[in-house]
Amino acid sequence: MSKYEENLYKYTGYLGSSDDYAAAKAVLLGVPMDATVSFKPGARFGPLAVRNASYGLEEYSLELDRALDECRYFDSGNVWIPPGNVERSLALTAAAVAKVVADGKIPLTLGGEHLVSLPAIQAVAARYPDLVVLHFDAHADLRQEFFGETHSHAAVFRRAYETVKPKNIYHFGIRSGDREEIAFGREHSNLFLYEILAPLQQVLPSLAGRPVYVSLDIDVVDPAFAPGTGTPEPGGCTSREILEAIHRIGRSGVQIVGFDLVEIAPDLDHSGITAMLGAKLVREVLLAFA
Fold first, then answer.
1. Does the pTM exceed 0.70?
2. Which phi and psi angles does 77 have, rounded to 5°?
3. Which residue, 40, 44, 54, 39, is CA-closest to 5?
4. What is the mean pLDDT of each run of 10 residues along the chain (290 residues)?
5. How far does Cα 242 stand from its chain's mean position?
6. Adjacent-strand bridge partners of 76
7. pLDDT at 153
8. What letter does residue 127 receive in the DSSP assignment?
9. Which residue ranges make up each domain of the chain?
10. 275 near 111, Cβ under 8 Å?
11. Which pLDDT does position 265 carry in this prediction?
């Protein structure tokens, strides 16, 4: 294994993770892929950065009054991603997530670019045909293709529409996209521009008891709070608001069956605050959902 591979796939488990897969309710999977990023690369190093940052956190959440030692979760390390082979990378990710789902556990996927959400959503939807997806993002990601590629992080939710019923997909915090994709999203799904908390509160009561997958692109957060991402977009929510969104979902009574956190590019944020926010989001997700 080369030094590059050792750095990329070096295993550092998330804070407090168990070594007992069988007993775990949730399983973390890193997917270090950024093959289709359209501006600044580096999201492949996100999973390792989030894990490393987690050791700067307390295990206890004041908001939830719970600690990680009360939660059963397993960190399985990173899916092996062959650089440059997008289709093979997606297939390997789908297989890894499908195994977690088949074992009756909740997959928590750490990207990587947003395209890694597609195989994760597909694997979860195979188990839950009426799956609902809550998508938090600065970008609609609804292009039919981007630079001629239908498998792109800019087209991930256009592809997800081919698996999940469009009216079962809710987009929050969107503040960027071209005219066609915004029109498409307004016509075919549930597109909420700029805001996350007010529309989320409106939607959640209708989803109680239903299987829900949450996809969170870190760039939904304003770059003042999360600069370490490849396509930063000014005008987003605060770190406090995105944490509150996770708490509201956790309190809502929905059945969380999958989660991903994507597009953290640690080399673009030398302070490490983006990875730290990501690590805290994962902690709150574990405590709220698992």
1. yes
2. 80, -160
3. 44
4. 57 88 97 87 95 96 96 95 91 98 98 95 97 97 70 80 94 93 91 97 96 98 97 97 97 96 97 98 96
5. 13
6. none
7. 65
8. H
9. 3-289
10. no
11. 97
Instruction: Tell the residue number behind the tokens 């549930």, with chain if given.
Output: 190
CA dihedral 174, 177, 180, 184 (to 10 degrees): -20
- CB atoms under 10 Å from CB of 21, counted, come to 14
Tell me which architecture the domain covering 3-289 has in CATH: 3-Layer(aba) Sandwich (3.40)
3-state DSSP call for residue 206? helix
Alpha-carbon distance 142 to 115, whole Å?
12
Q: Which amino acid is at 154?
A: A
CA distance 48 to 7: 9
Structure tokens at 14: 């998330």
The pair of three-digit structure tokens given for residue 239, joined into one six-digit string = 């770190």
Long-range pairs for 275-278 at CB < 8 Å and ≥24 separation? Answer: 275/46, 275/49, 275/50, 275/52, 275/53, 275/228, 276/53, 276/56, 276/57, 277/218, 277/221, 277/225, 277/226, 277/239, 277/242, 278/46, 278/49, 278/50, 278/53, 278/110, 278/218
